[in-house]
Each structure stands twice: as C-alpha cells, then as structure tokens.
C-alpha cells in the first residue's frame, strides 16, 4: 500500500502526533518532528523497504518486526531513504531496545498500542485530507485558549500546547518579555518567525506575540499566524481589565492624596497631622477607644510612607502633547520598574511620589535649611542630593518610554508639610527640560525663564535694552551684562567670560553710559530677565567664553 499525500501543503509528523491519528503514541528518537509526511508504506518484510520514497511513514507488520535486529535493519533502511518515521505495534519485537539507534540515526520510531495496519489506514486518510488535520489543530487551539481565560501566562501556555516545535513570547512595546520563552526572540532558535500585534482597548500598540519555529514546512507560518490570532482577543480583554483596575486605583490614589494634603492643611496651627494620628494611636493603646484612621490605612495599603521626613519626586512628559493620549499608564509602569520612592500618583497635572531618606548609621541632620548644603556635601547631610542622584539614574536606565522631565523637593518633616513640598516639586518639574532633574531649592532665574513664553517677553526685553543693543556690534556688552548679573562681581564675570578684569570694567562703564546700570535696584531684576530672554536658555554656569576678548 503506497498512498502519496495530495494537496500543496503535506502534514508534518508533529501535526500527526499531536492532533492526527498518531496521538498518544510512544516516540523514540529525535524530538524534532517537523518532517513532512507525504506517503505511507506497509512493509511485511525488510526487502519491501528497498524502494522507499523520501518522507514516507513506514508501518512494519508483525512479520517485519519479529525481533530487535529486524527493527534495527528497518531503521537503517529508513535512514538511507530519508523516511519520515517508522511505526510498529507495541506487542511486536522489543522496540525499546533500538531507541538509542533511532536517536542516533535521527529516525523517529513510533510505537502504537493498536494494530499497525489500522494505524496505516488512519495515516493515509489524514494525508489525503491534510487541511482537515490543520482545521483540527486550530479548533483545538481555540478550545485551549478559551479555557485559558484572559491571563497572559495561561494564554501563552495554551499556544505552546498546540504549536509543536514552536516557541512563543508576549512582549511589551519596547521589547520586554511579559510571558513566554526567550527562544522566540532568538533568531538562532528557528528560521520561521511570525509576529502578531496585540492592540490595546483604544487601538494603540499594547504588545506583540512572536512565535519562532524550527519547522521549514511550507504553510506552517500561516497556520501559526492563524493560531496566534486567536489569542489577540483574550489578551486585549486582559489589558482592558488591568487598565480599568489601574485607572480606578489611580483615581482613588489621586483623591486620597488630595484628602491627605487638605487634612494636613486644615490641622490647627502647631498640631501636625502626624501628631494627631499619634494621639489617636495612644488613645487606642490606653484602651480608651479603638484607634483607626481610614485615610492613613488606605495610604499604607497603597505603599505610601506616612511618617516623615519625606523626599518628594515629580515627573512629567516633556515631549509634544498628543491630544487624547494618556501617558499615566506608561509612566507608572516605567516607575514601577526602576523609579525611586513609593508608587507614582497623579497630582496637579504631573505625577509625584515620595520616600523616606536613606538611613545612614551615625548620620546627623544638618543645622542649616535642608537642601541648602554646598556642593560636595555627603548625601546624609543633604538628602535632596541623594534623591536627585537616584532620579537621574532612573531617567537614564531603564529609559522611560517617552521624554520625561523630573524634579526633587524636601525634606518634608511629615504629612503636615507634604502639601507645600509637593507644590515645590510640581513647580520645579514644570521648568525642567526633557531628561533633566531640577532641585526645587536651587531654581535660578534661567529655570523660571524656561517656563515663560520667551517670544512674548522678547518685545519688552528689546525695548528695555534698545540703547545697548544698538551700540553692541558683536554682542559682547549683552553677554557681559548677563554674566555680571549672574555671578555678582566683575572679577567673577571676567573669569566666566575668559577675559581680563579690566576688560569687564571698561565694558561695564560703557553699559552704564547706555542707561543699563546693573547696580540700580529698580532695574536689576528687569535687566537680568531681559538678558536671559534675549540670550536664550543657556544656564549661567555654561555661558560660553567671550570671543571678543580684545574689545572693550
């Protein structure tokens, strides 16, 4: 009996084993089972194998499989003719004795429980209708995926169960592995790669299903793509459920923060919210009443620190606005992976978090105002410097999924000072540039100017400095005035500009003669702002050296 398979897409041995007539058999030999099966040959004696065609499933009857040596000869002939597999009944010969040979030759030996002739008929029937086998595979996939529900790990496991010799991975938009096998992302794992996009509930990119297979059978990629497509709907439903839960939690968290700040702000003068809470706890400990603060209890449940001191963080998207696009989910997911402080929560148009300063053995609090320590002070004495360093590290790696600006503020002694400290952090983050971190206690004039509409201020600035601009051929007078207002003294200005002190003195006399006296209290602030508007947003410590050093 020789039954060649008809149709352009022959079945693979893996498909026959998993969903076809060979389900439940014992397999000895290679795990790779993506070989095409194009025909069936029933052999009742060994010489019947001399004319085998490649990709043939050889079914040995009892007469050809009487002993181990006959099975060994059959395997060798199958190897010589590139047969797809050898099939024997369990009660014939001793098939397990040639398992090592099957593995060494790379010829699968299939041991079936029933009659070998019945198995041959079932294989021939399946090969005559290969699309029926694939239809059964897809139907099985649909049943398994439905049973998996909307959990991404269970969905990917169902895909692995129905796609033989195939690795599947669910990845986030930036390529992070969410569920599945890393082999699906490795080109060395197989030549066939299928990628199916999973859209979020709003139609935007949510994730991607990537499958990689060792099979080279024509049409297998189309089968894999169809099966992966069955998983898109439950994964989108999973995203919708998680997003709804996150939005509810986010709205509740924002409302809870507002309540905490409002309660602290309304506490009687001299009685902080922390002390009121401690009094309630003391009452409960003495047995007078049961102490319970629902606001603090919910804050603790969300992972927020509730006892100071606090260091405050604020971040915001710094890229161009995208109407209708909510960046909150991306920011909170990024922050959860590597952001300092507690959970991120929406507040006053940006996102904030806070934490207690790092405890350092033997460290003592500074006597001066927190955050005002000079450069080089250890982080134990200047905790805001440590917070700035941690936020800068978070902005660097892992990189946020969109341009982000950050700010730090504090320390706040407790909940009573949380509101003002949050306001400081929010004000600082609004003047921060993309990828930068601003300390709320060190915002110079250029930081404020960064948040102002420069074009709106350019006209008044040019009007104020009109005599100087008319006389300033190369811009040296404007740069000198701006630098002097930044650093305060002619000597410091000369060092910053890279010129001699006498040059700065001469230019300063010229500037005064043009009606722009930097020592006039009524003009000083206006002159400083006008210079910065016209010179741009270059920070004072990065003013380029003066190229007109020889000119007064």
UniProtKB/TrEMBL annotation:
Q: Which residue ranges does the record annotate as region Disordered?
A: 358-380
InterPro entries, per the entry: CdaR-like_regulators, PucR_C-HTH_dom, PucR_C-HTH_sf, Ser_kin/Pase_Hpr-like_N_sf
Q: Where is the signal peptide?
A: none
Which residue intervals are annotated with compositional bias (Low complexity) in the record?
360-378
| Residue ranges of every copy of the PucR C-terminal helix-turn-helix domain listed in the record | 477-533
Report the protein name in the record. Helix-turn-helix domain-containing protein
Q: What is the lineage of its organism?
A: Bacteria, Bacillati, Actinomycetota, Actinomycetes, Kitasatosporales
């Amino acid at each position: 009996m020789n039954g060649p398979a008809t149709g352009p897409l022959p079945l693979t041995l893996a498909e026959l084993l998993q969903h076809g007539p060979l389900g439940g058999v014992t397999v000895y030999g290679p795990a790779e089972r993506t070989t095409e099966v194009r025909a069936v040959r029933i052999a009742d004696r060994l010489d019947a194998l001399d004319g085998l065609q490649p990709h043939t499933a050889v079914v040995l009857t009892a007469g050809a499989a009487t002993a181990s040596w006959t099975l060994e000869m059959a395997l060798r002939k199958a190897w010589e003719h590139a047969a797809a597999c050898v099939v024997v009944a369990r009660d014939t010969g001793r098939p397990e004795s040639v398992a090592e040979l099957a593995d060494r030759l790379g010829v699968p030996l299939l041991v079936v429980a029933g009659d070998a002739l019945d198995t041959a008929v079932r294989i021939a029937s399946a090969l005559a209708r290969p699309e029926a086998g694939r239809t059964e595979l897809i139907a099985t996939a649909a049943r398994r995926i439905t049973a998996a529900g909307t959990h991404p790990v269970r969905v990917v496991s169902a895909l692995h169960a129905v796609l033989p010799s195939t690795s599947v991975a669910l990845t986030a938009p930036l390529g992070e592995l969410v569920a599945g096998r890393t082999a699906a992302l490795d080109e060395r794992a197989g030549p066939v790669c299928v990628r199916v996009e999973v859209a979020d509930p709003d139609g935007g990119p949510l994730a991607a299903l990537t499958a990689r297979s060792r099979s080279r059978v024509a049409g297998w990629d189309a089968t894999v793509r169809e099966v992966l497509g069955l998983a898109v709907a439950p994964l989108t439903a999973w995203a919708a459920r998680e997003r709804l839960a996150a939005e509810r939690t986010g709205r509740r968290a924002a409302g809870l923060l507002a309540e905490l700040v409002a309660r602290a702000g309304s506490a009687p003068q001299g009685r902080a919210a922390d002390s009121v809470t401690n009094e309630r706890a003391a009452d409960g400990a003495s047995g007078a009443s049961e102490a319970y603060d629902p606001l603090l209890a919910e804050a603790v449940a969300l992972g927020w620190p509730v006892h100071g001191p606090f260091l405050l963080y604020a971040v915001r998207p710094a890229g161009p606005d995208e109407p209708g696009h909510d960046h909150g989910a991306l920011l909170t997911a990024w922050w959860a992976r590597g952001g300092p402080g507690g959970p991120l929560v929406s507040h006053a148009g940006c996102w904030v978090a806070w934490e207690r300063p790092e405890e350092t053995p033997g460290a003592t609090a500074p006597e001066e105002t927190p955050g005002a320590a000079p450069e080089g002070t250890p982080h134990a004495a200047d905790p805001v410097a440590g917070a700035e360093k941690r936020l800068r590290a978070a902005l660097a790696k892992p990189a946020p999924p969109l341009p982000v600006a950050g700010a730090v503020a504090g320390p706040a002694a407790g909940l009573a000072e949380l509101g003002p400290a949050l306001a400081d952090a929010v004000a600082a983050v609004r003047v921060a540039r993309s990828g930068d971190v601003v300390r709320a206690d060190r915002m110079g004039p250029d930081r404020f100017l960064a948040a102002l509409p420069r074009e709106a201020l350019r006209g008044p600035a040019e009007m104020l400095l009109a005599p100087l601009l008319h006389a300033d051929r190369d811009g040296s007078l404007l740069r000198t005035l701006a630098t002097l207002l930044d650093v305060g003294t002619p000597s410091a200005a000369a060092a910053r500009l890279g010129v001699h002190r006498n040059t700065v003195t001469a230019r300063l006399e010229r500037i005064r003669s043009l009606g722009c006296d930097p020592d006039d209290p009524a003009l000083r602030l206006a002159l400083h702002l006008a210079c910065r508007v016209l010179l741009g947003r270059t920070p004072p410590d990065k003013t380029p050296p003066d190229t007109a050093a020889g000119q007064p």
